[in-house]
Specification:
With 197 residues, this protein is mainly β. It has one helix and 15 strands, in the order ββββαβββββββββββ.
Length: 197
């Protein structure tokens, strides 16, 4: 295995990536969770890992890139970051053991890399908008609602028809996968904008 260093100081394996994978990612893709497949692993299989591409682990990225035309979450606008507010942890299905970050406000769930929560290992999950998971920072509550696809979702074995409130360790079934809901924000903790001195 040969390791190479790019002009921005990132290390990468040229046998896997012809150029630096950190520098090659356009700015608009730096906020999603993306699957990494290793040579010989099945596409969308369990052998690959996931990586969070963000300005924090990409030193060459701008701190506040100009992103005209894109909606910015209220918490992100106030704090400058889009912090994690909870997680979905896959406890059954092709991606068993993986966790998915939940961000403030509305999170789209599906297989596509354009989704806020990309669950690419389960092909019974719709590509786009299978479901939405929402964190309301004013009410400090989490909700799940059915998406725009044909696929159903279940909350603790009950079909979700409209929007349902989530509690810690609720079980969410999407496609052939089951996820445990783990909140981080709520009554005990809430992200606040840093006070300027």
């Amino acid at each position: 295995m040969t390791i190479k260093r790019c002009q921005n100081g990132h290390f990468f394996d040229p046998d896997i990536n012809p150029s630096c994978p950190w520098c090659a990612v356009p700015a608009y893709e730096n906020e999603g969770t993306h699957r990494i497949n290793t040579p010989g692993s099945p596409e969308g299989g369990n052998a690959g890992g996931t990586v969070k591409l963000s300005p924090h682990n990409r030193p060459s990225a701008q701190k506040n890139p100009v992103d005209e035309g894109h909606t910015v979450a209220v918490v992100k606008r106030k704090t400058g970051i889009d912090p994690v507010v909870g997680w979905l942890v896959c406890i059954k299905g092709p991606d068993r053991g993986r966790d998915y970050r939940i961000r403030t406000e509305k999170n789209s769930i599906g297989r596509s890399e354009t989704m806020d929560i990309c669950i690419s290992g389960d092909d019974s999950i719709s590509r786009n908008d299978h479901a939405f998971l929402v964190y309301d920072p004013k009410k400090k509550t989490f909700r799940i609602q059915s998406g725009l696809s044909r696929g159903l979702i279940y909350l603790n074995e009950e079909e979700v028809i409209s929007s349902e409130t989530l509690k810690a360790y609720d079980r969410i079934e999407i496609g052939q996968s089951v996820f445990l809901f783990v909140p981080f924000c709520g009554e005990a903790f809430q992200w606040e904008a840093e006070q300027e001195s």
